[in-house]
TrEMBL record:
<dbReference type="InterPro" id="IPR051786">
    <property type="entry name" value="ASN_synthetase/amidase"/>
</dbReference>
<keyword id="KW-0547">Nucleotide-binding</keyword>
<feature type="binding site">
    <location>
        <position position="98"/>
    </location>
    <ligand>
        <name>L-glutamine</name>
    </ligand>
</feature>
<keyword id="KW-0028">Amino-acid biosynthesis</keyword>
<dbReference type="Pfam" id="PF13537">
    <property type="entry name" value="GATase_7"/>
</dbReference>
<dbReference type="GO" id="GO:0004066">
    <property type="term" value="F:asparagine synthase (glutamine-hydrolyzing) activity"/>
</dbReference>
<dbReference type="GO" id="GO:0006529">
    <property type="term" value="P:asparagine biosynthetic process"/>
</dbReference>
<protein>
    <recommendedName>
        <fullName>asparagine synthase (glutamine-hydrolyzing)</fullName>
        <ecNumber>6.3.5.4</ecNumber>
    </recommendedName>
</protein>
<dbReference type="GO" id="GO:0005829">
    <property type="term" value="C:cytosol"/>
</dbReference>
<feature type="active site" description="For GATase activity">
    <location>
        <position position="2"/>
    </location>
</feature>
<dbReference type="Pfam" id="PF00733">
    <property type="entry name" value="Asn_synthase"/>
</dbReference>
<dbReference type="InterPro" id="IPR029055">
    <property type="entry name" value="Ntn_hydrolases_N"/>
</dbReference>
<dbReference type="InterPro" id="IPR017932">
    <property type="entry name" value="GATase_2_dom"/>
</dbReference>
<feature type="domain" description="Glutamine amidotransferase type-2">
    <location>
        <begin position="2"/>
        <end position="211"/>
    </location>
</feature>
<feature type="site" description="Important for beta-aspartyl-AMP intermediate formation">
    <location>
        <position position="363"/>
    </location>
</feature>
<comment type="similarity">
    <text>Belongs to the asparagine synthetase family.</text>
</comment>
<dbReference type="InterPro" id="IPR006426">
    <property type="entry name" value="Asn_synth_AEB"/>
</dbReference>
Length: 606
């Protein structure tokens, strides 16, 4: 796992100091090594977290003939098989790094070579032959890549904070993206919180010629997955060897790995299968709250850990400890994103990173095999929602803001930005074929929006903030293609989701574990926003430049009064305002600041 950044200019040579600063801003992603390479009008920067080929995987990687230069972030899990194929075709490798297979796959097959890569990746490859820069991103968007197209340059980086040193000025905030953050909780689609900075979409490559004309190519889409008719046992017989193949590829590493064990079905399956193939007790971690079992999955996680004999660590967090991680999480997230689960996740990542560089997580199982309750609407509910909201079937709508406070508190520019709130969701819903039913359309919409732009951002940023790589086997594209191809009855049966996973996993897990209901991981942050801290927070927020710019002055006192009166009624909006104020501090005003996970958030708001 690494950080990458770079630039291609219309004319002239890249500025080494800017590239070095970009790499420094990404140092948390790759604390083990760094490198900068310039050729023609292109500059590439890399920071490395050493996972495979510890001694010889320095980047940028150059081919033996000097035709290509590559920087890559992620893992190519089938590099062993792909390297053998490419060497048989005459390719000469300079390293044993999995990333070098990207370079030779492109040399042999062009952009079509991306279809041969099984993994999570974002890369930039420059060809001196035709003076072309190629940016590529994995099929599901597991690894991030941002870019900006200007008249005199195209710049890119793994994170926004690493991209900004390569631009002549910091772009303006997008009202649409800010409104989407407040309403939905994250910003979806290609646009970001800063105007002109875009995300390279999952499953695509961007080809940029020396005239700086970008051409986007889609090399994979979940829309192309055909529907199949399979019986339950047939599907399980197909899933079993495929899951083993995927997991054994994901286990390739020159450093030890562990598992985030939630106590749920998805991580329980990973525990069972990783224990089968591993040579030593697996290192596992779970998180909960001190003094209460409410919302905790610690007992379930411990039961699974004991069943398979893992070396298990429980983190029991005080809520104030969770609150203190907010500055670090806001800086790490890069774009604005409301997901309080980032806070305990970051503290678990911090604990794991003290001894590991790689952990497995269960993200993706709910989207691929239909685990969420929102997938289990009755036919009548589906029809009614489609009539009321034909562009999305009312899918993924809702707000944590009291309507009256939003109307009175949002400034005119922010309120105007709300007209495009559900554009990305509507676009994803509209892309689906006419013959698809509600369940598959909902899965596709989640994969294109919530998964890529929220959940995977959380995994990447909270882990990489501590130099920890997260591997997500359920999002291997072969697993995704199997899951989406299945008929609805193998995914949802009555009020139960993940039917195929539950049936397949029943012999693997402790009795009753495969039958457990899906539970979200609550973060009762409202317990902290009380008393003197709440009053201090109100004063800090009211003085924040960004809040004064985008919101009306009466909003903060109204939210504080609501929180004081109800105890929890304004927790979400207050936390979002804190995030906005902190984001302005770390991304716009002081991007070199590096808060720890043990800060008083109010000290950083101003």
């Amino acid at each position: 796992m690494c950080g990458i950044a770079g630039i291609i200019l219309r004319r002239g040579s890249p500025d080494i100091a800017s590239l070095t600063l970009a790499a420094a801003r990404l140092g948390h992603r790759g604390p083990d090594d760094s490198g900068v390479h310039c050729v023609d009008s292109v500059g590439l920067a890399h920071t490395r977290l050493s996972i495979i080929d510890l001694g010889g995987g320095h980047q940028p990687i150059l081919d033996t003939d000097g035709h290509y230069a590559l920087v890559a972030n992620g893992e190519i899990y089938n590099f062993v098989e792909l390297r053998a194929e490419l060497e048989a075709d005459g390719c000469r490798f300079r390293t044993h790094s999995d990333s070098e297979t990207i370079l030779h796959a492109y040399d042999r097959f062009g952009v079509a070579g991306l279809q041969r890569l099984n993994g999570m990746f974002a890369f930039a490859l420059y060809s001196t032959r035709d003076r072309t820069l190629i940016l590529g991103r994995d099929r599901l968007g597991i690894k991030p890549l941002y870019y900006a197209v200007l008249p005199d340059r195209v710049a890119f980086a793994s994170e926004i904070k690493g991209l900004l040193p390569l631009l002549p000025r910091v772009p303006e905030i997008s009202p649409e993206a800010l409104a989407r953050f407040f309403e939905i909780g994250f910003n979806s689609g290609a646009e970001t919180i800063l105007q002109g900075i875009r995300k390279l979409e999952p499953g695509t490559a961007l080809v940029i010629d020396e005239g700086l004309t970008p051409r986007q190519i889609t090399y994979w889409s979940a829309l192309d997955i055909p529907q199949r008719e399979l019986a339950l046992e047939e599907a399980c017989e197909e899933l079993d060897p495929l899951f083993d193949q995927v997991l054994r590829e994901h286990m390739r590493s020159d450093v030890p790995y562990g598992l985030f064990l939630s106590g749920g079905l998805d991580s329980g399956i990973l525990m069972a299968r990783l224990s089968r193939w591993g040579n030593a007790p697996l290192r596992t971690f779970s998180v909960g709250y001190a003094g209460t079992d409410e919302g905790n999955e610690l007992a379930d996680a411990l039961r699974v850990a004991e069943r398979f004999g893992s070396d298990h660590t429980e983190l029991r967090l005080d809520m104030m400890d969770v609150f203190r991680a907010l500055p670090l999480c806001v800086r790490a997230a890069d774009d604005l994103m409301y997901d309080p689960a980032c806070l305990p996740s970051a503290l678990m990542a911090q604990a794991a990173a003290r001894e590991l560089k790689v952990v497995f997580t269960g993200e993706g199982g709910d989207e691929v095999f239909a685990g969420y309750g929102r997938y289990r609407r009755s036919p009548l509910q589906q029809i009614m929602k489609q009539i009321l909201h034909p562009r999305t079937g009312n899918y993924r709508r809702g707000s944590r803001w009291p309507e009256s406070l939003r109307r009175s508190g949002f400034g005119d520019t922010l309120e105007a930005g709300r007209k495009w709130l559900y554009g990305p969701v509507e676009s994803a819903w509209a892309e689906t074929p006419r013959g698809w039913g509600f369940l598959r359309r909902a899965q596709y919409t989640d994969i294109r929006t919530e998964l890529a732009d929220n959940l995977l951002v959380k995994v990447d940023r909270t882990l990489m903030a501590f130099g920890l790589e997260g591997r997500v086997p359920y999002l291997d594209h072969r697993i995704v293609e199997l899951g989406l191809s299945l008929p609805d009855r193998l995914k949802v049966q009555g009020r139960v989701g993940k039917r195929i996973l539950r049936h397949w996993a029943e012999p693997l897990l402790p009795q009753g574990q495969s039958e457990g209901k899906k539970r979200g991981f609550g973060v009762p942050i409202g317990e902290v926003l009380r008393g003197d801290l709440l009053e201090r927070l109100g004063g800090k927020l009211a003085a924040s430049p960004l809040i004064r710019e985008w919101l009306r002055p009466e909003l903060v006192p109204a939210l504080v009064a609501l929180q004081r009166r109800t105890g929890t009624g304004a927790t979400g909006p207050l936390l979002q305002l804190m995030q906005l104020a902190l984001w302005g501090r770390f991304i716009l005003d002081d991007p070199d600041a590096c808060p720890s996970a043990e800060e008083d958030p109010l000290d950083w708001i101003g």
